[in-house]
């Protein structure tokens, strides 16, 4: 039977920490640890009057039995000097009885006994005996083959958009840091965690490790791309961890989506708070979260704030930055000559202390494929240049390594719409239409030269380097690609050309929304003009609610300053691009009477839409209206300046009473969660009560509240029993987090740490 662990995912520094923990657990003694690097023969020490107990760990990448013999032989002089009473030698290499005898002979000291020489088999045996040590060393157990298989069968592979090798790579270079322990504590206490921070700081990696830890404990992992996904996947009787990566947008905030979803996100968080068998992990860029809080009272709430873990560079101490670089170099496949060139001189210190230090840059600069063309002698210089100018990560590859057609494809991908209720990425068929229009629009080819295989050939050119393809969808390989393209597409010619080529209304909204807010008025007018021509010319497909389309068109006309477009937009063909959602018309009517009041026919159209709302609640209806639709209308009327007639409010009261009377708790579906459904009913009723003076809902509300109280009482009892049977996992603080002596990390400590990577001449 193969050993559970081969320890290849641990660096020498991490392996030493594991060995100290394991010997301490087996002997019941406390061992002192020292700074990494040249250790004078001591990785751990237990002091006592009759002679110290010394521990030495040996673990090197791709080392052989011959390498181990040389390293052990060199320790003999240290033993003579230290004069320990007892000596432990631990190695990740497999050892036979004969090899142990050889090592005892090489050390040739009375403190050395074969029983205290542990190889791979002994380490695995003692880990099985001391499970607490195994669980403390998160990287170790998360990287075992059995755990990785379970993660891939769960939703962790979807969440990371990764393969087995990619998950293994992430876990290899991961450095346990205080943010993990703090995040785990917040998640356990509040059942929700918002990880916020700047791009590339490690938000997604932290979420991945937390989710993987729960997943290995038997919790169901649910990766979601919209809050609707969360409500649909919610199963009261299952222990579930929901992960919502970039929940407010990848690059910038989408105010329309925020207005639609913020209340539902907070309500979902409230459900998590109450349920001991649920966890909710969300990630977002800090500047997007701050923008969202400025617009949303729901997200700017104390209950939301206490669930936040701010991950920024201040979280990374000098030692942690050094460990991250160390792990990436140790596990990198980069040519050893390049690594040795980096270790010479003062480059490592400059990297660790650089003002632009970012884990994502470290990952990029230690990727063998991306650095393959860099000569070893130039590697330190290129590394520092990239830190000084992070745009260089993608700039050279974008400008020199791919064709103009491929550049156009990436432009299209950046501006293509992200569907609201779907998997991440852009559908291939959507992207193909946009791309084929764009290469003609940019003059790369003529329409007659367009070939059926051109899209596939160009997509193949950027596959794996800039994008990944999965299940008929294409996504960027890394969020930093989008960061780069957001800057690269600030050119007026690029934007206006793409605007003339957009294939759908949703794509037009995406392009206009992603324009740099600092763009000049002239540039905005040029792009707006191109988009309006696309609309009027009938070149775009798809449909949107009228209020969303009107907001876009209104902004475009304002940007051009040409109200003459309004006459052209009255053409019959425009009607195919929208449907009317009466519940959201009040804000549009306000805009027509205020922001857009100078547009021709604006006030007349506002009167027409007011009549549409009145007809919506006509007294001669032959059906019961949906409570959710009435709640949306009530909420929007309450925040609008719009005034309706007394007859309208009378019709509204009647429709609301009918809708509430039609609610029947006994008809809630077997696949639905009763508390969630009834909770939504109560929220809808509360919104309706903000508009109406009727008291007809009192008894229904009381009946619903009593049922929820009963459900919660039963659920609390069930959770108490479940918690006894299946306690939630607790993140430990492994020994590798113990700071060097004095709690600081000096230049000497830095040199000592990286000395183990240096090759002797």
UniProtKB/TrEMBL annotation:
GO annotation terms (biological process): DNA restriction-modification system
Annotated CDD domains: AAA
GO molecular-function term, one example from the UniProt record: DNA binding
Region of interest: Disordered: 719-748
SUPFAM superfamilies: P-loop containing nucleoside triphosphate hydrolases
Restriction endonuclease type IV Mrr domain span: 8-64
Highest taxon of the lineage: Bacteria
Novel STAND NTPase domain segment(s): 174-331
Protein's name in the database: Uncharacterized protein y4cD
